[in-house]
Write a structure and sequence with these properties.
By secondary structure, the chain is α+β, with helices and mostly antiparallel strands. It contains seven helices and nine strands, in the order H-H-H-H-H-E-E-H-H-E-E-E-E-E-E-E. The strands form two sheets. The chain has a seven-stranded mixed beta sheet with strand order 7-8-5-4-3-6-9. The chain has a two-stranded antiparallel ribbon with strand order 1-2. The chain starts with 7 loop residues before the first helix and ends with a strand.
Length: about 290
């Protein structure tokens, strides 16, 4: 089979070095190193056949080294707990993605118990249930700073030239310009570009109030339903959050694994178990389309 690799970390490093995005702090880098080792060790326990003891030992060493770095930063007064929580959350998204693909594969192969990762079959399942909703390159993102990536409930000031990226202040715009000018193509449309659908982070910035006139577009990726429909859902940037149906039927008409949900006037919700995302009520259904 073909080997699968994620280049998220190396891509981010390249973007930071190019000045496209703000560099992470040293404790954020250490938190990511620890999270990668931590989640990798948990994942290796599920593999069949299991990796060699040498591979386990190598990852334990990575975990130990990263933990020592974080302890040093903690003594210096930096918020390493938040950095590590966010890093683990990011790494667990990959685990949930694999769980979703395995779930879809099991539905198609109820009498098989071995799922080989890699190759065209894995790619097909990814596109079927785990790929982010497609975004138009003709639309702009006006609610997240293109440099520091901080989301906002208020529309940010966009680049006057390309009109498709926005910044939270002049400092971020100035810091980003050296790299952005290489890809900044003047907007030639007769009207300003339309805005992209909100991301989970952008919706959360509205503080639990409805994002009037905005649309959240997500893919229903992993089915966690029991007494009501519950799905892990992915936004256009790959962020995962949970939706739960608190409707009269305890479901959302037409919703199944892989569906695309578009919700007008959405609102963010924090669940009692500590997770977050969206609680869909009966009165929300007229503003929701499922395809």
């Amino acid at each position: 089979h073909e080997c699968c690799m994620s280049f998220d970390v190396t891509n981010r490093m390249a973007e930071e070095e190019a000045g496209l995005i703000k560099k992470r702090t040293p404790w954020e880098v250490a938190a990511e190193e620890k999270a990668i080792a931590y989640v990798s060790l948990r994942g290796m326990e599920r593999m069949h056949p299991r990796p060699s003891e040498a591979v386990f030992a190598m990852n334990r060493k990575y975990l130990e080294d990263a933990d020592k770095k974080l302890q040093k930063f903690a003594r210096e007064g930096h918020d390493v707990e938040t950095a590590f929580r966010k890093a683990v959350e990011k790494q667990q998204e990959s685990t949930l993605q694999m769980d979703a693909m395995t779930q879809a594969w099991r539905k198609e192969n109820p009498h098989s118990n071995t799922f080989e990762v890699g190759g065209p079959e894995t790619q097909r399942l990814y596109e079927q249930v785990a790929a982010p909703p497609k975004s138009s390159s003709r639309r702009g993102d006006f609610y997240t700073c293109d440099y520091c990536k901080k989301p906002s409930a208020a529309e940010l000031k966009c680049c006057a030239r390309c009109k498709k990226v926005a910044y939270c202040n002049k400092d971020c715009q100035k810091a980003a310009w050296k790299a952005h000018k290489k890809t900044c193509i003047p907007w030639t449309g007769t009207k300003d570009p339309k805005e992209l659908a909100l991301t989970w982070d952008e919706l959360e910035a509205f503080g639990g109030f409805p994002a009037e006139g905005k649309v959240l577009e997500i893919r229903a990726m992993l089915d966690e339903s029991m007494v009501r429909q519950v799905f892990q859902c992915k936004d256009r940037l790959g962020k995962l959050r949970r939706i739960a149906a608190y409707t009269n039927s305890r479901g959302i008409p037409g919703l199944q694994q892989g569906s695309i949900i578009k919700w007008k006037n959405p609102k963010f919700h924090y669940f009692m178990d500590g997770s977050s995302g969206a609680r869909i009520e009966e009165e929300d259904l007229p503003n929701i389309t499922v395809s």
